[in-house]
Amino acid sequence: MRCSTSFLANALPVRALARTLVSLLAGLAVLLADLPQPAQAQGRVAVVRDAEIEGLLADYARPILKAAGLEQRGIDIVLINNPSFNAFVAGRRIFINTGAIEAAETPNEIIGVLAHEAGHLAGGHQQRLREQLARTRTMAIVGSLLGVGALAAGTVADSRSGKSAGGALATAAPMMAKRMLLSYRRSEEINADQAAAKYLKATQQSARGMLATFERFSSGLALAGVRVDPYQQSHPLPRERIAMLQSLARESPYFDREDPGGLMQRHQMARAKIAAYMGGHPAVARLFGRGDASLAARYGDAVATDLAGNSAAALKKIDALIGAQPKSPYLREFKGEILLKLRRADEAAQAFEQALRLSGGRNGLIRARYGFALLASGKTGNATKAIENLRAGIQAEPDNLNAYLHLSQAYGLKGDIGNAELALAEGYFRAGNGREAKVFAARALAKLPKGTPAARRADDIFSVSR
Questions:
Q1: Is beta strand 93-97 parallel, antiparallel or unpaired with respect to 87-90?
Q2: Can you say whether the dihedral through the CA atoms of 34, 38, 41, 43 is positive or negative?
């Protein structure tokens, strides 16, 4: 090894070595670019927080996660504001795009997607992917060094054929590593499909929705006239997955089982809300058709009306919907949001309180909005109750960053500036802004009584942020 290294160092011109290293790095960059990246790696993404849709996804996922043995792992489902049909896993989170829910015509389609992602988590595919990536990096580097050696030998012998062979080896090595890694990824996707079918069968649900999803992908490729190289794909080709899934799905005794009516209603309501937020009235009309008088279509119309700036008209529409579905916590929640826009904070607080009660009193997002409505009334007498509900909301949803700001305002309304500064420090700390967290933690320390739990927490934030 020492002789080989010395030979390369002495025989290879500097410019040739530089070109080879650039080729190697470019190949590795291509290899990495084809991998599904976590949301954070793709840049900033818009995370959607919505109590109604999150509750629906949690109900979809609960039996699947139990069947996969993941119910005790604290798996979170994160909603991403993106119109494409996509989902992926990172850490202990399943990320799913709003576009996937809007496009899915039945709950079973989204349940199939969640089952597939649960298959990745249960199979430990992320850890094995990291290990495989390390191996393929090594393969690319070793292959490129062999190419460098051939190139160096050609240089010494003044052989053009030797230079050509060396260059080909150096360029081909990253591609070979890439194909090896993509082949590994294809096998993992197949394993996740098989696991998903098993989970759906264990929970007595149909795999028809998952099959419909891949058939939609296959039709999209055919209509686009797409021709793909199977050796360049990280996922199996749609026709291959469809053939396998058709076999797996039809083997299940639950293939013809339909989604419960109540679940279908909730799914359509979620689609209507997403359509309204993504595209207003035109999007709702495209989804349900003009003149549709279903509860979901009317809900989408009410949301779109509010977003268009006509909150008074939206309030009438939402009241009519509450009359048709009086036990829905989310209709009450949305009514509270409309009333806040209309500057009727006391009535908004009542609506959020009713929504919280109808949801079982455990929803952290709704509780935080109730606390904010109490704060928005501007009444000093509501400050203590606002603090109580905001703190409870944060305890249930520690990453609800807006709640920290509102909690700080509630403490300020009460005249407790030390805890107001501490709430802001907590919020900035949770958001990853160490600089601002340190500033507000220092301010809180200057005002909070020494030795109290609040002062100790401020000191912790200050020390960590520093």
A1: antiparallel
A2: positive
Burial of residue 38, with CB atoms counted within 10 A of its CB: 0-12 exposed, 13-18 middle, 19 or more buried: middle
451, exposed or middle or buried, with CB in 10 Å at 0-12, 13-18, 19+? exposed
pTM: 0.75
Q: Of 31, 37, 32, which is closest to residue 174 (Cα–Cα)?
A: 31
How far apart, in Å, are the Cα atoms of 334 and each of 299, 347, 370?
A: 10, 12, 12
Closest CA to 269 of 102, 150, 433: 102
Q: Please state, in angstroms and rounded to a whole number, the distance separating the CA atoms of residues 220 and 243.
A: 17
- Give the SS3 label for residue 79: strand
DSSP state of 190: H
Four-point Cα dihedral 423, 426, 432, 434, nearest 10: 90
CB 98 within 8 A of CB 82: yes
Check: CB of residue 95 under 8 Å from CB of residue 309. Answer: no
pLDDT digits (tens, 9 = 90+) for 319-344: 999 999 999 999 999 999 999 999 99
Q: How far apart are CA 177 and CA 271, in angstroms?
A: 42
**DSSP conformation letters of 129-167:** HHHHHHHHHHHHHHHHHHHHHHHHHHHHHT-HHHHHHHH
What is the rounded CA–CA span in Å between residue 178 and residue 35? 10
Task: Assess contact for 249 and 197: CB atoms under 8 A.
Answer: yes
Span 221-237, pLDDT tens digits:
433 333 444 444 445 55
Q: What is the DSSP code string of 327-383?
A: T-HHHHHHHHHHHHHTT-HHHHHHHHHHHHHHTTS--HHHHHHHHHHHHHT--GGGH
Identify whether the C-beta of residue 373 lies closer than 8 Å to the C-beta of residue 340: yes
Query: Percentage of the chain surpassing pLDDT 90?
Result: 58
**How far is the CA of 393 from the CAs of 49, 245, 372, in angstroms?**
13, 42, 10
Number of H helices, E strands in the chain: 20, 4
Least confident of 28-32, 61-65, 96-100, 299-303: 28-32
Which residue, among 27, 20, 39, has the nearest Cα to 90 in the 3D structure?
A: 39
**What is the Cα–Cα distance from 99 to 97, expressed in whole angstroms?**
5
The end-to-end CA distance of the chain, in Å, is: 46
Where do the structural domains in the chain lie, given as residue ranges?
1-259
